[in-house]
Specification:
This protein is of the alpha+beta class. The protein contains twelve helices and 14 strands. The protein is globular, with a radius of gyration of 19 Å.
């Protein structure tokens, strides 16, 4: 196996063009190296992009938040701009493994590995994440929901590199959050994870909702039927009636007839209710 360390995006796409399906990008290595050591993947070339400074920034671009592909999960969990504009992503990043993993794992790696249990992906989905992909042929922009084609599968072409993820910040009278359930209290994959972004009118009516889940056998995805069920609900005493939305979420997110799916169907409505009430409390707190 050949190892090459590149210092620019141009060098990276040159190497990808050279190796095609035989090449593999190496960033944090938290997915690639275990797969290699287990014999699950044996690329002819590893292309180390960890030294490309241009992929490591977090910035405001025309009101959107641009996150470079090499930004680590630890940085996402601690950056003030992310906590302010994308609290679900901050919370999801902090929920990934231990801090040692967070320190090296990258947002680009999470997106391109596309694991069904990836905590960050539901948070990115409710932020309407848009991806910038580059190759020697140019660049293209793709919605994250379209990019994720299945558990562990994406629309990334062999000669493409993920350069940045662009996110829509929460708006006025909006809030969001992320919750997960694992097999133990820490450092475990999500059996199920849920991200919610909620918008509420001054009169207390839900005017916008984005709901996304991870866990199970499908790739992380939004659940439009649950989002629709939340719209128009009148908040009563700081509580959101999530009964209909919770039922839609459970049936859509875990349709399989397995014990694991039955468990996810049981816990998802409660997670949604907790997140919705927390969002309403955050919005009320911002008003006071």
């Amino acid at each position: 196996m050949q190892f090459s360390r590149v210092r620019s995006v141009a060098e990276a796409v040159d190497e990808l063009s050279r190796w095609g399906t035989e090449g593999r990008i190496l960033a944090g290595g938290t997915d690639v190296m275990p797969q290699y050591l287990r014999g699950e993947r044996s690329p002819a070339a590893l292309i180390d992009i960890s030294g490309i400074d241009g992929l490591q920034g977090i910035s405001d671009v025309g009101g959107a938040t641009s996150v470079g592909a090499l930004v680590t999960l630890r940085r996402l969990a601690t950056a003030s701009l992310i906590a302010l504009r994308h609290p679900a992503l901050s919370q999801a990043s902090a929920a990934v493994g231990a801090w040692q993993t967070q320190t090296v794992a990258t947002v680009g790696g999470n997106v391109c590995t596309a694991a069904a249990s990836a905590d960050t992906l539901p948070a990115l989905l409710v932020s309407d994440a848009q991806l910038t992909l580059v190759s020697k042929s140019g660049r293209r922009r793709m919605d994250l929901g379209e990019f994720l084609t299945g558990a562990g599968a994406t629309a990334l072409r062999p000669t493409e590199l993920l350069r940045a993820v662009e996110l829509e910040p929460i708006g006025e009278r909006s809030a969001e959050g992320y919750l997960k359930v694992g097999r133990r209290s820490a450092m475990d994959l999500a059996v199920v994870g849920l991200a919610l972004r909620l918008s509420v009118t001054p009169s207390g009516v839900v005017s916008g909702a984005r709901v996304a889940v991870c866990g199970g056998t499908r790739s992380p995805h939004r659940v439009p039927s649950a989002e629709t069920a939340l719209l128009g609900i009148q908040i009563d005493g700081g509580r959101v009636d999530c009964a209909e939305a919770g039922a839609e979420l459970a049936s859509a997110a875990a349709p399989e007839r397995t014990e694991a799916a039955r468990y996810r169907r049981r816990v998802l409505p409660g997670l949604l209710s907790r997140l919705a009430d927390r969002c309403v409390a955050d919005i009320s707190g911002a008003d006071s």
